[in-house]
Amino acid sequence: MGEKIGVYVCHCGSNIAGVVDVEEVARWAKEKFPEVTVSRDYKFMCSSPGQELIENDIKDLGLTRVVVAACSPHLHEKTFRGACQRAGLNPYFFEMASIREQVAWVTKDKLQATIKSKALVDGAIRRVINHESLEPIKVDITADTLIVGGGVAGIQAALEIADSGSHVILVEREPSIGGHMAQFDKTFPTLDCSACILTPKMFDIGNHPNITLLTWSEVESVDGYVGNFEIKIRKKARMVIEDLCTGCLVCQEKCPKRVIDDVYEVGMAKRKAIYVPFPQAVPNKPVLDTENCTFFQTGKCQVCQKVCPTGAIDYEQKDQLLEFKVGNIILATGYDLFDARRIPQYGYGKLPNVITSLEFERLTNASGPTNGEILLADGRKPETIAVVHCVGSRDKNYNEYCSSICCMQSLKFAHLAREKTGAQVYNFYIDIRTPQKDYEEFYNRILDEGTLFIRGKVGEITNIPRTAEEEGKLIVQAFDTLAGIQRRIPVDLVILSAALEPRSDSVEVGKLFGIACGAQGWMIERHPKLDPVATMTEGVFIAGCAQGPKDIPASVSQGAAAAARVISKIQQGQVLLEPIRASIDENRCSGCRICNNLCPFTAITFDEIKEVSSVNVALCQGCGTCVAACPAGAISGTHYSDKQILSQIEGILDPALQLSK
Amino acid sequence: MSTNGKPKFSMYWAASCGGCEISVLNIHEKILEVDANFEVVFWPVAMDSKYKDLEAMEDNSILLTLFNGGIRNDENEEIARLLRKKTQIMVAFGSCATEGGIPGLGNLGTMKSIFDTAYFGVSTENPEQIYPKTSFESQFGQLHLPKMYPVLRTLDQVVPVDYFMPGCPPEPHQIGAVIDLVIQVLNGKAELPPKGSVIGAGTSTVCDECKRTRTEKKIKKFMRIQDVERIDPEICLFDQGIPCNGPATSSGCDARCPAVGAQCIGCYGPAGGVIDYGARLMSAFASVIDSNDPDEIESILESIPDPAGQFYRFNLAKSLLRSSKYAWKGE
């Protein structure tokens, strides 16, 4: 072959050079392959001087191929492709060998690490020789954006994009937007009213000319790719004609059927069978709960229809399937609260005065079931209250991670409980974590107020007394690690600061949108530090607690950040797609139709007349599923041809490398 | 030896069943054309000839050799090398020579396990516990038997091969067509295809020649043909859950098996462009399983009772792996 290859081995400071003999890898590459014209090692290949090394060599030595052995392609493939392009070399004549993530970070033995690095470089060199010149595919971007989830993160993102002049379709599963924030009473550390700061934003969503709000709706399917997603949304039947409904809520008032509200009031209060979840709901149009409606269950009643002044009740309404074309998607699907029943020794669900954080939020909320009075199950006022931190968080039995908000939330509970009842509050904590602005000051304030802090994980919450003073109380038992003693604190009310968990269906939702969730179920960002709201799927962004536990300011920031990313994409007008596509050789295809069902982007169609299958290049994302499946070898993938892959494997498995020990 | 000026022809039978030889006779009266155009100089199954005679021939003096069977012992290898030296156009003839064929499945086990099965298996009566040896003292002196190799190799894994002719055995009409072609070349009326080509086969897959109607494939269960109550005569066998290898197999046989309701077992070898036949098939089969539940997927896969036989019946010796590790190491 007449190729001239440049091989560059990166030290990555000591990240790679600390384990891999980088000079040896560079020396060996030049010695082994006659095609390798130049081989260098350098401290930081991704730095400007590092990239200039490549550019200058391409210009001065006439390199036709470039291999960089460094970190992972996720991180810097674009960087080095850019360097190639600037020097006039087609960027696809570049190949990267990951000797940091795949070698240095996972191999302790220096000799083994060096041999393994050589193997990867060997494969990369043989592969790059077989590379072909490719041009990126340009496609127009649809300006509309889909946002899934109407909590505060989704609301923020929607408003930012709508205000910038582009259209947003905001989809919410529940009857109203607002999310968890709408359930809270006060927010830490400023103690301003949650509803007061959220409802204006909710109102703006409901009235924004650039926002199509679809509540009581769920995304059913997603096709297409960045710039050109095709979305199907199931708008569940409300049994209320929204255009006619004026939001007078006479129907709700007159409805004779009361149902426990498991969602908004977390089971602490009842709602009607036709209802809006809370007075500030957006849209202020009710939903009829057919499972509990007397008419739907028995065929009699129809009170709501009789009282509705505009004739907006329609018992015949069916689910609607709506189709939209959008360019970008933001997932702000939020979190689920840890089910405290999973820790039986805490007695939640069995002991009446053990409640969760969300239940306390409702209890202390002025619009809640007790109008904001903190009362025990029997209506008494509590005199002593325990707040238990880290329930289901930082616990290997449940979730190893820190839920990030519980410390601050528990401090807030201590303050609210004390302020409203005058009770003595005990906070049981493992560590207090107050890392944001004004958070530590809030902690000091609560300390000053007289809340008692016991450092120790609660072992048990019981109603079985051992002494007279424990009689009729809940006893919270914990080992106080500061005093070195077991403590039994008798209290009237226990608040469990339950962990934030990924939505129970986060993995399925992720799949629907083509993104992955981590082991715990949080959606994975493209880069944990440098690209926290993008995902590995172009055009799909994440914001808020869908990505991991976070508080309101962080959710709002992410909503805004995701919006900024989307607005920037819209302004670019076009997107460059990787030219990596599958294609079918008509002459080899015998129409066995094995590939027909496989394409996640529905890019494969079957021509009934010619009896062959073909790939729509505009829809194909180059995932390679069909390439692998085609039994006749009639489908090939650009940049991943058999020749390219097999030559790489041959390089990696070259027995000479093992002998080089 | 030859004096009549006709080009010379030879055919040899290494590790194979003999079906290829019969298939050549199955070309009926066309065999007369072979005789008219060629001088048969070496064909142990059809005429008396000695290896010594072959050795005595000049190099490249044979125009065409049809070599069937894989290379399983040192005799196979010796004759393959000898014929290669004497032959201008060396054709790997039939599945065994091109891909290893059924004897190639022996590469899954060790030589010892093969001998144990053959000499001490339940179907063998062997009271004297006779076990094959490579030399034997007889009353006439020392006799030698060929030495068996740990694995079977295809012909092209031993000597350079000019053309490959798949099939178990190759279809008579394909043999006839190849003979016609060679005769035309001899008369200057056609040109030989590029060296290394597959000849006597189609360019597409069995599905291309199969008349059955195909739909999008969604498989809930694979069924062996004997377990199917009624096979629909119109619908693709694969679509009926019968594991048919047609989609990955080279055309050229006129889809004879699927036409009569038997699944393709892949004797015509991989379609062009397929590097590892069995891996391709497994990937294809796995792709159309209609379930997302790991347990259900597992049970659907278990409905293929003999995966090696299903996916590599003819191709194991030519696959990327070629054999099991134990066989390869000669253990």
Walk me through what this model shows:
The complex is a heterodimer of chains A (661) and B (331). By secondary structure, chain A is α/β, with parallel strands linked by helices. Chain A folds into four domains: 5-134 and 645-659, Rossmann fold, CATH 3.40.50; 145-179 and 191-334 and 548-572, FAD/NAD(P)-binding domain; 336-501, 3-Layer(bba) Sandwich (FAD/NAD(P)-binding domain), CATH 3.50.50; 580-638, Alpha-Beta Plaits, CATH 3.30.70. Chain A has a five-stranded parallel beta sheet with strand order 8-7-6-16-27, with helices on one face. Chain A has a five-stranded parallel beta sheet with strand order 18-25-19-20-21. A four-stranded parallel beta sheet of chain A has the order 2-1-3-4, sandwiched between helices. The radius of gyration of chain A is 30 Å and the shape is globular. The two termini of chain A are 29 Å apart. The relative contact order of chain A is 0.11. Chain B has two domains: 8-100 and 154-186, NADH:ubiquinone oxidoreductase-like, 20kDa subunit (Rossmann fold, 3-Layer(aba) Sandwich), CATH 3.40.50.700; 206-325, no CATH class. Chain B contains 14 helices and nine strands. Chain B is globular. Chain B has 331 residues and is α/β, with parallel strands linked by helices. Chain B has a five-stranded parallel beta sheet with strand order 2-1-3-5-9. In chain B, strands 4-8 form a two-stranded antiparallel sheet. In chain B, strands 6-7 form a two-stranded antiparallel ribbon. The longest helix of chain B is centred in the middle third of the chain and has 15 residues, at 172-186.
